[in-house]
Design brief:
Layout (H helix, E strand, L loop, with lengths): L13 E5 L4 H12 L3 E5 L3 H10 L4 E2 L7 H14 L4 E4 L14 H28 L10 E6 L14 H19 L4 E8 L2 E2 L14 E2 H13 L4 E4 L1 H11 L3 H13 L1
Parallel strand pairs: 1-2, 1-4, 2-3, 4-5, 5-6, 6-9, 7-8
Helix pairs in contact: 1-6, 3-4, 4-5
């Protein structure tokens, strides 16, 4: 069942991807560019963004730090002064494995600053002008907000003390945004990947089941948007098992998780 207007025709549409210097964000920006979208990429790495813009003529590099709310406000004003924003994807992320026996508070706060508070900074910057836009003739919506969550936010997981709670917060945030904005003509989608080959996941010292490439992830995201999905999760052969864990009562969940740790 489509919970959002289907977005398959990207020709001439402007998409702003925040956190697009590498990994899923960069691959999705490249795929959107190939489908005719006007792509704007943001991240802290000026060199990476400039390289993307050079390789994708017509795209715009807009360097910024998501923890700087004023910078996001200024960037949003610059973009909306040029025209409408059709879709905004927040995919900035920070990840280090962490266990409660070895808490690193500064790094925990950095996870929160980038993964969650940065998304709030972006929403504060883009929602007012997006709500003021006239509906698009092709979709009937004023715009679309997409947040990059993770299956790590479904339930508490080992070594996910810092990362998992930020993704759980994004999942809750996306659900609430959908309820608030659907009637206002603004689409909302939530992207929950499993394991994807990115600079963040390369630090993992454990086997990552059903690992896919960033390019495969980008294709899944565009397909999910084209189907009008609210939650876009992939790869299904892994994420369906993770969804099943959500249904378990605590005794069964903790027992299953302990067994997974031992494999």
């Amino acid at each position: 069942m489509a919970l959002n207007p289907r977005m398959a025709d990207w020709l001439g549409r402007t998409v702003w991807l925040v956190g697009a210097s590498s990994g899923i964000g960069r691959a999705t920006a490249s795929a959107l560019h190939a489908h005719g979208a006007t792509v704007v990429v943001s991240a802290r790495s000026v060199a990476a963004l400039d390289a993307f813009a050079k390789a994708h003529p017509g795209s715009t590099a807009l360097p910024l730090d998501v923890s700087d709310a004023a910078a996001l406000q200024a960037a949003a004003q610059t973009l909306t002064a040029r025209g409408r924003l059709d879709c905004v994807l927040y995919c900035a992320g920070h990840y280090h494995a962490m266990n409660a026996t070895r808490i690193d508070l500064p790094d925990m706060l950095r996870h929160n600053q980038i993964n969650y508070l940065g998304a709030l900074n972006l929403l504060d910057a883009v929602l007012p002008p997006m709500l003021a836009q006239t509906p698009d003739a092709r979709t009937g919506q004023r715009g679309h907000i997409s947040l990059m969550g993770s299956v790590a936010g479904y339930r508490g997981l080992p070594n996910s003390l810092a990362y998992g709670p930020t993704k759980a917060a994004l999942i809750n945030l996306a659900e609430t945004l959908y309820l608030d904005l659907h009637a206002q003509g603004v689409g909302v989608s939530l992207i929950n990947p499993g394991f994807v080959e990115t600079p963040l996941t390369r630090q993992n010292q454990f086997r990552m089941p059903a690992l896919i490439t960033s390019e495969q992830a980008a294709r899944e995201i565009l397909q999910g948007w084209a189907r009008g999905e609210f939650e876009i999760h992939f790869p299904k052969r892994f994420t369906r098992w993770m969804k099943a864990l959500q249904l378990l009562p605590y005794p069964a969940f903790f027992a299953a998780t302990r067994r997974l740790q031992q494999t």
